[in-house]
Each structure stands twice: as structure tokens, then as C-alpha cells.
Amino acid sequence: MKRHALTKAITLATLLSATSLSAMAADIPLSAVVEADQVTTKVVSVDAANHQVVLEGPEGNQVHVQLTDKAKNLGKLKAGDLVDIKVTRAVAAYLDTDIDKGLPGSTERTGEVRAAPGSDNPGGEAYRQVQVQLKITGIDAKNNRVTFENPKGQSKTVDVVKPEVQAKLKDLKVGQSVYVTYTDILTVTSKSGS
């Protein structure tokens, strides 16, 4: 899969985990949010043998980055090259309308795509996706609050502030599960400096 296609696929999958499940009678989407931050920085130095790169930070400070031995094209990166770093975060939540007797839990997936060996411009994408099952232990519809139990057995009460989610509080029942999927995607592309 090509880079950028991975970003689109993972972001779409996160959103669809909240929206496509609404087609199933037992699942109700609660919310979905995608945010992205991007910065372009300059390479100060490269130590390909030790997989280290020094980048120029936003205020001109130097940021040392230690990479793994999977960074195969570092020899092509040089001082003065520009590096684009983009972080995409997505959060999607949906309600399982069945009363689930199971305990809350979590799962994690990771993956990466790198520039082909020998590529002129080093770069790649990596993602981390965590899905957490929270158990509803209390509902205060009058004050727009829901209490959840996390996988560690800890309780937390959340104020529901978005009107579109407040409207869905009537669909909640103690004992139901809310699944929240967190996805972070890091995209790094480089281009030769002049």
C-alpha cells in the first residue's frame, strides 16, 4: 500500500467504526473527530550509521531524533533537506446497545509503510490504533453526565457537552459498552534542499 493511501485508509476505518456500524441495529454512533497538525523542518545533520537525525525545531532549536535500523534510506538524507511531518489523530465512539456482561478491555494495532529501498526521498508512515471498551455504570441525563468503568476497573464521570451527543443519552443503559477507537498516524516525507 502506498504512503498517503495508508493515512486515508486508517482514518476512514476509524470514522467508519463509528458510522458504518450504525447500519447494524445493535450499534449507535456517538461521535467522530479527525484533527491534523503539520510542520516542515530542515535537516541539520544525519548520522546514517547510528540512525540519528538532527532537525531544526520551530524556534531554531535542534531536535535529535533516534530512528530504528528500519530507516533504510537515511544515506540519501542530507543537511539542508526539508522534512514534512504530519500527525493525524482520529477518535470515534459508538454504543453497543446490547447489555454486555463482559469486562471492559482494550486492543492495540500498529503498522508502518516505508519508502522503497533506494528511493530518492526517505520517508514513511506509521500508525497506532487503540480500541477501548468502556462499561457504562451510571447515567445522569438531567445533568448530561455518564460514568464509565475502564479496563483497569477505575470509574470516571464525563460531562457530555456536545448537543448531538447529549441527544443520544436517552439511548444509553447501565451495563452497555461504549467502544472508543483512537488512531494516530505519523507521516514523514522529505525533499532535497536547494
TrEMBL record:
N-terminal signal peptide: 1-25
Keyword Signal: yes
Start and end residues of each stretch annotated as Disordered: 103-125
Keyword list, A-Z: Signal
Name listed for the protein in its UniProt record: DUF5666 domain-containing protein
UniProt organism field: Pseudomonas azerbaijanoccidentalis
